[in-house]
Design goal:
Blueprint (H helix, E strand, L loop, with lengths): L13 E4 L15 H14 L3 E3 L7 H8 L5 E5 L10 H16 L4 E6 L10 H11 L4 E7 L3 H9 L5 E5 L6 H8 L7 E5 L21 H14 L3 H10 L6 E5 L6 H9 L5 H8 L25
Parallel strand pairs: 1-2, 1-8, 2-3, 3-4, 4-5, 5-6, 6-7, 7-8
Length: 305
């Protein structure tokens, strides 16, 4: 998982999420071809060289394949909801081949199982397929994206994955806290996503009515950021970068105008212990309001993911 672009401070640990590249994923409107091209150019120019995608993100792989130069790195995932059984190894192979075709590449740096559940840990068909893909020269490292502490902890402890992708933001800190209490096997790294809680922590305007329950937490965060003289988005990024173990930080971006905030966040000083304790008090782990899967109707995203 070495980088092909020259690192620039903490920017070297930030991965560009591409859910918005493909269509109506997560309630966000489709990003135009022009916006994608400009975003990729700006990202590469500042040292953001890794892009996370998936077949589930509509046309995202196709669009990355069209515009992303070879020196950049790609993390992708297998097709969503692959089922265990005698044909699983063939399904995994087919999914990888299809992704490589769309990405116009011979290799991906990380291949992830999309929404890996603990139930697969002892499944013989999964074990065979996953061992086979681990020997495939077209795959640099194997990863899993997970939801919830149970699956994340199991994935990290399983020895099956080099990378485990988990949800984390200032209002939902529980999974990373649970992971930090254990001892990760050597070679396993963590990537955090949903740092902006589907744009809620980036938005400067009012929340949609069905997310009004997040209002008091968002206002508290805004007051903290104002008192510290920083922007909320930049503070969210800095807090993610300061998590234990120096994790990868996946930020879903939709256009080039959002990149300056990423640079600001990465350039902020490390949080003090006192500041970290203040932000810990914002945590609402276990509250359905901080789980976008429970949001209905799905909102138009007010900003990056």
């Amino acid at each position: 998982m070495n980088q092909s672009c020259a690192p620039r401070d903490d920017l070297s640990r930030i991965v560009v999420g591409t859910a918005g590249f493909g269509g109506e994923y997560g309630g966000i409107g489709q990003v135009s071809e022009h916006e994608i091209h400009d975003l990729i150019d700006v990202c590469l120019s500042v040292g953001l060289c890794i892009f996370d995608t998936a077949p589930a993100y509509g046309e995202a792989e196709n669009r990355l394949g069209k515009w992303l130069p070879k020196q950049a790195q790609i993390w992708t995932k297998l097709e969503h909801h692959l089922l265990p059984g005698p044909g699983l190894a063939a399904d995994v192979e087919r999914s990888l081949e299809a992704s490589l075709g769309r990405l116009r590449r011979d290799r991906v740096e990380v291949l992830q199982w999309h929404n890996w559940p603990l139930d697969l840990a002892r499944d013989q068909y999964f074990a065979r397929a996953w061992q086979s893909i681990g020997r495939d020269p077209r795959v640099g490292s194997r990863g899993a994206s997970t939801y919830g502490a149970r699956d994340a902890i199991a994935a990290a402890a399983s020895g099956l994955f080099d990378l485990v992708q988990v949800e984390w933001n200032l209002l939902n800190q529980g999974v990373v806290r649970e992971l930090a209490t254990g001892r990760l096997p050597q070679g396993v790294t963590i990537a955090v996503r949903s740092v902006f809680l589907q744009g809620v922590l980036w938005s400067r305007g009012p929340l949609p009515s069905h997310l009004a329950g997040l209002g008091y937490s968002l206002e508290a965060l805004r007051r903290i950021a104002s008192d510290w003289g920083v922007e909320v988005g930049a503070l969210a990024i800095r807090a993610a970068l300061d998590l234990p173990g120096s994790p990868w930080v996946i930020l879903g971006l939709n256009n080039a105008s959002e990149v300056p905030m990423v640079i600001k966040g990465a350039a902020l000083p490390h949080l003090t212990r006192e500041q970290s304790l203040v932000l810990t008090a914002l945590d609402r782990t276990g509250d359905s309001m901080v789980d976008p899967r429970t949001w209905s109707p799905s909102p138009d995203s007010p900003g990056p993911l």
